[in-house]
């Protein structure tokens, strides 16, 4: 049955029912198309990420050894926070958070110089990214030689009259040494992200700042930082995640958690409990704690950066 409708001339014409059904079917397909396209990615995330996460959290409430498979409540978490090594790992997480602005500022400034086409910027682009393709084991082995107590760096310092530094044997220095090596080895990826962000920067803003007589520091703070606020947020979060979850190779090769456990991070502690102490439930509890730390720190960083960007606007 056809429904009546008005033609442009004002006369009544009928619209076929089949056409209406096809129109409704077409609109329904348009609404469902995005869901169909997103479904495979969502399924992969749920199956390979969220479901294992739920299983890991549940496993953290079970026991090890004689109590394997038994629900023990929060016993594993109480054991964690009473373990001096885990408390040291948490303290080192605080050190990472304090050093994070430096780890982000270095690639940000270098990307700024490359964007402004300083002499040799094409060479610098390749040189800065090169360490990112090296294996952490190779990087650790190289710096073990360079930073040895009788290594080249200490010989250079000795020639300058500054005396040797026990870079990897002093508990107060070792963690900063490993973090510094990690930043050197990974800042190339953040550099690429910053360069991608600069591709969206309106160059007229830089021209206006130059006309107004803004200094280089003022241009960075009042033009570049607000324009790249989302890029900076992304680099902050990914750099923090990288520090918390990608330093195992360096730690294992350079210090093995020493000296005196001073370079322990949650990631290394998890491996020790799972791989050497055969305490998978305790390792799961440490993994859950690490996940919560990353979640809280990441959300806090995003909130702080958004408020800073809002004040700048």
List the helices and strands and how they pair.
Blueprint: E1 3-6, E2 12-15, H1 17-59, H2 75-81, H3 84-115, H4 121-129, H5 136-146, H6 152-159, H7 174-198, H8 203-211, H9 216-227, H10 229-245, H11 248-254, H12 266-276, H13 280-312
Antiparallel strand pairs: 1-2
Quick recap:
By secondary structure, the chain is an all-alpha fold.
What features would you describe in this structure?
Residues 1-22 are annotated as: Disordered. It is found in: Cell membrane. It is a single chain. This protein is mostly helical and 313 residues long. The protein has two domains: 17-59, no CATH class; 75-312, MetI-like fold (Orthogonal Bundle). It has 13 helices and two strands; from the N terminus they run ββααααααααααααα. The protein has helices at residues 17-59, 75-81, 84-115, 121-129, 136-146, 152-159, 174-198, 203-211, 216-227, 229-245, 248-254, 266-276, 280-312, and strands at 3-6, 12-15. A two-stranded antiparallel ribbon has the order 1-2. Strand 1 (3-6) and strand 2 (12-15) form a beta hairpin. The longest helix has 43 residues, at 17-59.
Could you tell me how far the N terminus lies from the C terminus, measured between alpha carbons in angstroms?
59 Å
Question: Helicity level, as a percent range?
Answer: over 70%
Total strands = 2
Major sheet attributes: 2 strands, antiparallel
Q: Rg, please? A: 28 Å
CATH architecture of the largest domain: Orthogonal Bundle
How many individual helices?
13
Q: What structural category characterises the helix and strand content?
A: mainly alpha
- The side-by-side strand order for the widest beta sheet comes to 1-2
User: Which whole number gives the mean pLDDT?
Assistant: 85
Oligomeric state of the chains? single chain
CATH level-4 homologous superfamily of the largest domain: MetI-like
